[in-house]
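This protein record is not my work; I was only asked to verify it. Where you disagree with what is written, explain briefly why. This is what I was given:
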Amino acid sequence: MALAGSAAGMASAAAASGGDQLMIGDMSLQTLSDGNLVLPQGFLFPEQSPEQLMPILTRHGVAQDPMEPPLNVTLMRQGDRVVLFDAGSGPAFQASAGQLPAALEAAGVSPEDVTHVVFTHCHPDHLWGVLDDFDDPLFANAEHFIGQQEWDFWFDPSTIDTIGEARATMAAGALRRMEILEDQITRFRDGEEILPGVAARATYGHTPGHMSFELRSGSESVMVLGDAIGNSHVSFERPDWHVGSDQDAAMAAVARMSLLDQLAHEQTRVIGYHLPERGLGQVARKGGGYRFIPL
């Protein structure tokens, strides 16, 4: 599916309860903060030497260790639909995260109001917020969507034994939540329009079935990236470098380079889960790499 984007007709409003707003046709888009992660530099960039890494991080003002990437959950309102792209971390992952319920309340949305939850992938900071304190679905009235390939991987009971010790806890957590949600989950494949104006875009590598989503109305579009591009510094300047949080780092790098090239060429707006300035921006070429331009 071809992408396009322009400033025309793309309205931004004052920040409200944690996020700027964009209008794409009849879609109102807003990012809500689930807080932030706290991650060691060595986890995110295990292959890079300080001599390679620090000039880029210093240039972007993020040289501290540990790093604190933001968590931006996308809220879309379209007619009677109230859609979340990912569900945040919940209270059981990191103390600095799990703030989505408060952000929703500030935005005037109760969990019962949410009609659809669309997952980019099943890492804890995207999935673990789907359950309440009693392990019941938090968004009880919502239909949940996940890519078939992502579902197959995490729902496979053998994954926990093959994914590696460092990721075993997240595999167990993903499987438990998906088993609880099974009757509320609709699976889809790459290229499908899962809701009016919302098409799935395969960006595999960060996880085996990671999906981004193109939101389109006429000639306007926004790409909800998930973790296909997981930071605004190293992965923009050196998208070919491997990132430690990517499950298949080589595949993720190929997906990232292709996506950045397309987004820059077609000037498509983006919403990044871990990008700064609420995650809302655009991609531009810079030398042999790219840069993130906040809206």
